[in-house]
Every structure is written in C-alpha cells, then in structure tokens.
Amino acid sequence: MKKGRLEAFTDAILAIILTIMILEFKTPESFQFSAIYSQIPYLISYAIGYLFIGVAWYNHHYMFAKTRWISRRVYWANNMWLFTTSFVPVATAWVGRGLNEQGPEIFYFIVFASWTAAYFFLSYQLVKANEKDHQPKAAAAIRSMVIYRYIANWKLDLLQGIVTVVALVYVPALQMVIVVLMIVFIGARFNKDSDHLID
Amino acid sequence: MKKGRLEAFTDAILAIILTIMILEFKTPESFQFSAIYSQIPYLISYAIGYLFIGVAWYNHHYMFAKTRWISRRVYWANNMWLFTTSFVPVATAWVGRGLNEQGPEIFYFIVFASWTAAYFFLSYQLVKANEKDHQPKAAAAIRSMVIYRYIANWKLDLLQGIVTVVALVYVPALQMVIVVLMIVFIGARFNKDSDHLID
Amino acid sequence: MKKGRLEAFTDAILAIILTIMILEFKTPESFQFSAIYSQIPYLISYAIGYLFIGVAWYNHHYMFAKTRWISRRVYWANNMWLFTTSFVPVATAWVGRGLNEQGPEIFYFIVFASWTAAYFFLSYQLVKANEKDHQPKAAAAIRSMVIYRYIANWKLDLLQGIVTVVALVYVPALQMVIVVLMIVFIGARFNKDSDHLID
Amino acid sequence: MKKGRLEAFTDAILAIILTIMILEFKTPESFQFSAIYSQIPYLISYAIGYLFIGVAWYNHHYMFAKTRWISRRVYWANNMWLFTTSFVPVATAWVGRGLNEQGPEIFYFIVFASWTAAYFFLSYQLVKANEKDHQPKAAAAIRSMVIYRYIANWKLDLLQGIVTVVALVYVPALQMVIVVLMIVFIGARFNKDSDHLID
C-alpha cells in the first residue's frame, strides 16, 4: 500500500477527531463573563484529550516514518486504532461534564484501555511487517519506543489497571491524573533519532 | 487531471464522512454508566459503517494507484461516488436508532445500492480511461478486483437484492448481516500486488 | 508562496464545506420510511450544492495546475473566494427547507453573486500573477476558460441577473434551475488540455 | 520530525477550525429574507475570525517554509498554538451574539492574548531550532517578520493591552476594531521573499 496516502488519510482523521472536541465547548446563553466558568471542567478534559492525541500522533508519525512497507494487515490494524481513537471525543465530552463522576470515568477507562490495546496491536503488526520486509533496524526502533515497552510490560499494565480500578471506586477523577502521568511519561522520553527525520 | 490532488481531495472527504459518524454517538445526560447502554445499537451501526468505508477506501486506493491518468469523466464518476458515500452517515444514524426497523433498513438498502452502482460506474470509467491511455495491465488489474467481479456479476446482484428484500420484509436487521458478509468477503480477498505498492 | 501547501489547504477547506452539507440531512424521529420524504427538498438542494462545488473545484484545480507562482495577492483572493464558498452550505440549507420561498432564494442569489465575483477576482489575479511571472501561456489558458469568459462577459451577467430577479419575484424556485443550467454549461465544456495534466 | 507531515496535519486542523465557524451561522426558521438580518453581528465576527486565521496561516506557512528541521520542542509548541487557535471559533461565536457585550469581549481578549503568547513561543522555538541546525539565515528571516517584531516589542504589547482593557470597560466592541487593525498591520507588510517561495 502507498504509505503516503495512508499517512495523509490517517492525519485527516486525527485532525478531525482533535478538532471536533472544541464543538463540545459551548458558549453561554448569558453575556456574563462568569457564565463561561461552567465550561472549566470541559476545558480540563479537552486539554487532556488534546495532549493524548498529540502524543499519539507523534508516536504514530515516528513508527510510520521508520516503515517502508504497509501491508493490508497494518492497514486494518491502523483502522482499528483510528476507530478506538474516534471515541476519545465522546469520552472527553462525558467526563468534561462530570470530572469526578463514576459513569463517565468508567467509560473513559474502557476507551483508554481499548485504545491502548489497538495501539499495541498496530505497533506489533508494524514490527512484524518490517521484519518480513528485511528491515530489522526499523523493527528494532519501533520495539525500543517507550510507548511500546510500556504497553508490552504486562506487569505495568496490570498495576496501572488495578490502581485505576481502585481510583474509579473511590475518587473517579484520579483516573484523569493517571492518564496524564502516563501521557507525560510516554511523551517526554523518546528515541533520539525522532528529532532527525527529514522529508 | 492531477491524480495526486484528486486523491488528496477524495481522502479528505472520506475522512470527514468517516469521522462525522462519531458525532451521532451521543453522551448521556445522566452520570450512570448504564446510561451508555442505549448507545449500543448505534455502536454496532457505526462499526459497520466504519468497516464499509475502510473497505471502500482500500479498493479506491488500489484502483487509483494503478491508474496514471485521470479524465474529466473519471472525476465526475468519483464525485458521484463520493455523493452516495456521503449518505452512509445518514443511513448509519437512522439504522443505529432502530436496528430492526423497516424504515431505516430500507433507506440503508437504497443508499447501499446507489453506492454500489456509483462504485461500479467509477471502476468502469477507470478501466476505460486506462485502456484509452494504453495501460492494459492497469485496466486488467482493476477488472480482476474481487469487488469489480462481484458487482459485475448480475446474477449475484440479483440474488443479493432478492435475499435483502425478503429480509427487509420479515427481519429487517438481517440486512446488516448481509452487508457485513459482503464487506468481509470483498475486504478479505484481494489482488496480491495490493500489498506491494510503494510510494 | 508554496503552491502545494496552498492547494492542500484549499482542498481541505472545500472538502469540509462539501461534507458539512450532509449534516443538514436530518434523519427522521419516526421509523416510517415515508418520514424521509420530508427531506427530498433538501436532497435536491444538496445535489445542486454538490454539483456547484464539484465544478468549482475542477476549475480551481485547473487554474492552479497552470500556475507556477503564487503571490500574496493571489493568496488573499483565494481566501476571499473560500469565504464566499463557505456560505454555500448555509444557502443550501435554507433553500432546502423552502425551494420555492423568496427569502431563501434571495439569499442564495446573493451568495451566488458574491461567489461569482470572488471567483472572477481570483482568476484575474492569477492571470496577472502569471503575466508578471513571464508565463503568457498559463495566463492565456486561464483567460480562455469557459467560466472566465462567461463571467467576464458583462452582458451575459446582466442578462442572467435580470432573468434571476424576475424569477425571484414570480417563481423563486426557477433560480435553482438557472444555477444548474449555468453550472452544467460551465462544467461540460472545458479546455482540452485539462484532461492531460499529469502529476 | 518530518516537516511535510506536520505541515499537512497543521493545515488540516486549521482548515477545520476555519470551516466550523460557518456552522454557527444559523439559517432562520422563517422564510422572510429579513430574518437573516439577525445573523449580521455573527457575519462580522466570522469575517474577523476568517481574517485572523488567514493571516496566521500565512505567517505559519512562511516560518515553516524557511525551516528545514522540526524538533520535538517545536512540535509541542505548534500543538500548544493549535490548541489556543481552536478557541477562536468559540470566542467568535460568543462575540457574534453580542458584539458590544463585555463578557464575550473579555473572553475574546483572553483567547487572543493566549494565542499571541503561543504564537510567539512557537516562533521563538523555530528560531532556536534553526540556530541549532546552523541555519542562521532562516533564523534571521523569522526574527525579521513583522509579527515577530510586533509581539517581541513588549512596550507595544503593554500599550495594546492597556488600550484594550480601557475599551473593554467602556466600549467592548472597540476591541474587535483593535484586533482588526493589528491583523491588517501584520498582514499587509511582509518579508519580501515570502512571495517567492517555490515548491
């Protein structure tokens, strides 16, 4: 498959997912400035969603830049991943109306867990496609990404899952803190060559 | 016509069609997690729509990758096809509110049938444009696609039409099963070289 | 200015303008198939809007393919043109609720006239930019486009304006017929080399 | 980072931000032409927002055309800038319902000020990235942009801030005039080579 066209298609979808989140930021009926305060919970939720997609795009961009050959399997793994990503605005909207409510936070957790699984599946398919294409360096670069090693570490996943479930029972809003911590951890450390990919 | 610009334009439209479907996934007013259950029918409908566009994109991408020359006739066939595709979110939304209701399912059927006709017309114009451009290999590759042979087989179309009409009368939801079966059948088998198109 | 990036930006905006028109096609609350009949006026209006943008894109694509050099003046003429184009969905939505109502049809006329003026201004700036860039062939190609000669013919514009105003007074819906006739006239005849632009 | 992919991603986001503003232009329930007059305040607000994004895109395009190398830091500065830009449609919508109301105008001012800060931060990171990449000419070109020198001039910023605050207290609508003046000032004067960037 033509990599360039798939990247462009993916980027268009991610750009729309990112931008429709602002549609949920409702302007008040009133003209009092204070009327906007009611949107602060959504502002927080939106900022987290933005950070999330930002880190996701960066990692996606790196994996694809390393890859020369896109198989049909990778195409469908990418679609599955985009499908889970498309629920981020939904979860963001619901959580943004009740940051410390259990229902929205459980939904966010399910979306986040599905997203993580889909992302890992996509990475794994890219690793395999690169190996099949005799590009061991690209495969190794993807394997060495922080996000890949993080998700592949099932003890860490289990720990994060347990901590999140406990948080959901007692202080649902804590889940957003866990998500932010994970995003910052993954986003802040990166393969050194990521800065030196040139068109 | 410049192929690259038309591909990019088409991709942008498909990406928007794909992504606006999530706007119909409404977050509940309530904060009960169970309130989200009411969205399960739409979730199913959305997943099918996603699969649909995913298979469509893959086939479109392949046909265009094979083609060197875009005539005005192909441009308008492509527009007509995009026009029918733009009704997929509408049909998906209505069916998603009543998976087993006759009205929405008939509408879905009309959209699906129009889409199929438009897709075939586009393929046929691409075949002809390639023949005119002395690219018999590209024309043959498009003719040999599963989706092309499927639609070109009028006995199969007639059979599918009859089965769907019967389903619409007795168990409308069955239509979605037929659509999924067809999508999987077309999506799962593909020209071997589709995996080896490089930018 | 980099032509490629401006083309891509323009295409993204046109793709969104094209696609948000489907958002106005509302699915019925009811599950009766006949409930969708109420959307037929909008369907007609939407089809015309689609045709409109389709012809516009084709002409825009041709003009830009011929042009090597984008000045800041062209950039702003392009923006102004996109601004007027962004009102097409609005006019389409209003007319789609009352095909033979005077208010919506007058609004459509104003949008259409502004669009025509903005399109001509853009073409004219492209002609001048090409002349300044010592590309007389490109300038001549743009000047010889049917749409350019149509709009540049002030007698024709005046005639169309008068006929439309008379139509608006007596049978507002006739305006849509005039628009369709003009689009088909412009869309059907084209510079011969438009089919032979290669990436 | 691959510059081309980031530019395309940014353009898609800006195109969506630009275009969703038209969604707020509501068509009247009535069929009286005069019913559209109620949208005139929003029309003004929308035109200003459009001008704003148009100038922003032009400046962004120039800075990136000059830059060869995109660091992770620039990526995140770009994201932060896009995040602030995504609030332009929100501020535009609220101001468009009350052009001379204090609440919306204060909100617009906050969005505008955040946007300005984010834009400057992005420019500054691009200057630094270019210096690190031994591209002193590119760094100097960015530093010499009118928008860069305008924002970097803290006396001017302070003056504009004070005048705006006074306006907000007495005649809130004046703020829009100040914004337009600034946009026109920045948009009208530009580095000469901006017209001569070729793909």
Description of the molecule:
4 copies of one chain form a homotetramer. Chain A is mainly alpha-helical and 199 residues long. Chain A has one domain. Helix content of chain A is 74%, strand content 0%. Chain A has 9 helices and no strands. In chain A, helix 1 runs parallel beside helix 3. The longest helix of chain A has 31 residues, at 102-132. The first copy, chain A, is globular, with a radius of gyration of 18 Å. The two termini of chain A are 19 Å apart. Chains in contact: A-B, A-D, B-C, C-D. Chains A and B meet through helix 1, helix 3, helix 4 and helix 5 of A and helix 1 and helix 2 of B.
Quaternary class: homotetramer
- Please indicate the percent range of residues of chain A in DSSP E strands (runs of 2 or more): under 5%
**Helical residue percent band of chain A:** over 70%
Number of strands of chain A: 0
Strand-pairing-aware structural class of chain A: mainly alpha
Count of alpha/pi helices of chain A: 9
Question: Can you write the helix and strand succession of chain A as a string?
Answer: HHHHHHHHH
Radius of gyration from the alpha-carbon trace of chain A, in angstroms: 18 Å
Termini separation of chain A: 19 Å
Low-pLDDT stretches of chain A are none
Describe the largest sheet of chain A.
none
Most extensive interface, residues per chain?
A: A-B, 36 and 36 residues
Could you report the average pLDDT of chain A, rounded to the nearest whole number? 91
In total, the number of domains of chain A comes to: 1
Shape of chain A: globular
Main location (chains A, B, C, D): membrane
Organism (chains A, B, C, D): Lentilactobacillus parabuchneri DSM 5707 = NBRC 107865
Family (chains A, B, C, D): Belongs to the TMEM175 family.
Transmembrane segments (chains A, B, C, D): 12-28, 40-59, 80-100, 106-127, 158-186
